[in-house]
Automatic annotation (TrEMBL):
It is found in: Membrane. The chain crosses the membrane at residues 6-25, 45-65, 85-102, 169-190, 228-251, 263-283, 295-314. The keyword Nucleotide-binding does not apply. This is Zinc/iron permease. One of its GO terms (molecular function) is zinc ion transmembrane transporter activity. InterPro entries: ZIP (IPR003689). Pfam families: Zip. Keywords: Membrane, Transmembrane, Transmembrane helix. It comes from Syphacia muris. One of its GO terms (cellular component) is plasma membrane.
Length: 322
């Protein structure tokens, strides 16, 4: 039978492949859908994004929260803590508002930068080289300056929306990366051979779906920044192996188990709060606000949730049969 360290290294290599390949595949899917060059191309991307929302929703409430609650109860038993205060839930709320505050701060930063960059307009910029019918009408009524300012305002809003999309995608990547490190950590501390195999199988199944979903969000936000997209997915794919290897290293150190458990609980609960924010405010709410059918968006999100729920049922069945 393989040693603990050797087994974890093999797991890490396989986990990287099962995470990276679906992530890179999402770039191809996004480019192919966008390649049609029509407004209808946004519908499949919107539905895929809703599928992502369903996956993350199920991951949060069927996997992360139960796992964090279990770890918190274990920590309370090991530390002889008798308080009934819902500390785990409070930490989740702190994680939620931490990302909320960060996004609002970044939004202010982007707004100030755009206003400074567009404070001065040269005389040549007041005369557009090509005028749309709307601009022609504005010129006829109010003059070229108003039409140009209207065009400039639309350009600024588009640029701001694009920067916001990139930022939201990066927030999602950070959240999912942190979650992946914790998953890798959970795998790395498994010393029982059968338990490690069971957890590994369940991880590679749902990591593929998660990776595709994360890659989709990154690709949608930064399709004109291919190097950034590829690098981000590559780094994300490394997170679970890094967590697994880090867990093996920490497990072999002389470290207080109670303190170790407390640190894991705090980090995991904060990550869940950021996960909830990304799921509801960055994915589901954004897609519901667009022009596509909310009914079909709900159906596709439900499919994503059902898929993860089935994986959870399969994982529970495998653990019960061991």
């Amino acid at each position: 039978m393989l040693g603990h360290v050797t087994l974890q290294l093999i797991f890490a290599a396989i986990m990287f492949a099962f995470t990276a390949i679906p992530g890179f595949a999402s770039i191809k899917v996004t480019n192919r859908v966008r390649g049609s060059g029509t407004n209808k191309s946004s519908l499949p991307l919107s539905l895929l994004s809703c599928f992502t929302g369903g996956v993350f929703l199920a991951t949060c409430f069927l996997d992360l929260i139960p796992h964090a609650t279990e770890n918190f109860e274990t920590f309370k038993q090991n530390s002889s803590w008798k308080s009934t205060f819902p500390l785990a839930e409070l930490l989740m709320c702190i994680g939620f508002f931490a990302v909320y505050a960060l996004e609002e701060i970044m939004d202010v930063v982007f707004s100030n930068r755009n206003s400074k960059n567009n404070e001065y307009v040269t005389s040549s910029e007041l005369i557009p080289k090509y005028q749309t019918p709307d601009e022609v009408a504005l010129n006829a009524i109010y003059g070229a300056g108003v039409a140009r300012r209207d065009q400039q305002g639309n350009s600024q809003q588009t640029r701001k929306n694009k920067e916001g999309s990139v930022f939201r995608a990066m927030v999602l990547v950070i959240v999912m990366s942190f979650h992946s490190i914790l998953e890798g950590f959970a795998l790395g501390v498994q010393t029982n051979y059968s338990d490690a195999i069971s957890l590994f199988i369940s991880l590679i199944l749902h990591k593929g779906i998660e990776s595709f979903s994360v890659g989709l969000q990154i690709a949608r936000a930064g399709t004109d920044r291919k190097h950034l997209v590829i690098t981000t997915i590559f780094i994300y794919a490394l997170m679970t192996p890094i967590g697994s290897i880090a867990a093996v290293s920490i497990w072999n150190l002389n470290f207080n188990n109670v303190v170790k458990g407390g640190v894991i609980v705090v980090l995991e609960c904060l990550a869940i709060g950021t996960f909830i924010y990304a799921t509801f405010l960055e994915i589901i709410a954004v897609e519901r606000a667009n022009e596509h059918s909310n009914f079909w968006q709900m159906v596709v999100a439900g499919i994503g949730l059902t898929l993860i729920a089935l994986f959870q049922v399969g994982e529970a069945y495998m653990q019960a049969s061991l």
